[in-house]
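Anyone else keep sequences and structure tokens together like this?

Example one:
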Amino acid sequence: MVTMEKFGKMCKEKMMEEILLRFTKHPNFVITSFMGTSTGGLEQLRRGLKKSRANYFVVKNSILKIIFNKMKLEEEISKIDGGMGISLCGEDIVAACSVLVNFSKTNDKFKIKGAVIDGKRLSPEKVKELASLPSKEVLLARVVGGIKSPITGFVNTLGGILRKFVYVVDAIKVNKEKTQSAAPAAPEAK
């Protein structure tokens, strides 16, 4: 027979497995403290994060400490204080950080505690710096523009050279025609 204590322990273990699986699928995440933030505010945050393919969930401190211990993120355990939430970043990490930072600006109780991006621990200040970067689409557009610009210049230069070559050839032709028409006609043979 399963007692309430065993049932609670089984639920906690299942919850930890589920959260560990989420971290495995999405290794880039931001740690936040939401204590004092309204439920409506957190729902607004979730909707904003959904656009950047990120998500946000609340987790019990005791479970988060165990998970960080298993993930060998002992330094992050010290950040756990009060109500904790995790934002698992999608493909566009900058967009997710931007949503979180903007939300923290309008909700003073919501605090960014740090992040783990590509296995590196980031301070809240670094998360804010990351959020200030242009979006992935803007960066890609800049790269394409940077690549396109020299090619366009090269094509324009070649076009200019060809135009000048045509002008020179045309000028030579005109000059020869003038020279031939200006030369006295040879006497006809009798």
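And example two:
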Amino acid sequence: MFGRVFGGATAYPKALGIWRDDERGGALVKDEPVIVHCYTTPVDIEDARNLAELGDFCRRMGREARQGEVGLVVGDEYFAIRDFAEV
């Protein structure tokens, strides 16, 4: 998806992470997230079709990887995607 829509991406090897699971009383959960880095242009990221495809991809990834949240950073803004329902 990233190559076709935005021209490419790089996935970094598993990182070491920790997150607080508020649904389990604030338990700390260690994980090994994969970071995907993609550069694009303002025109491409503001295109409604591209944004729809990116949203579909993030929701599908959240469902299939059984995640609580998929984080997306655009520019300097963080978007927490927690609703993985198909649109």
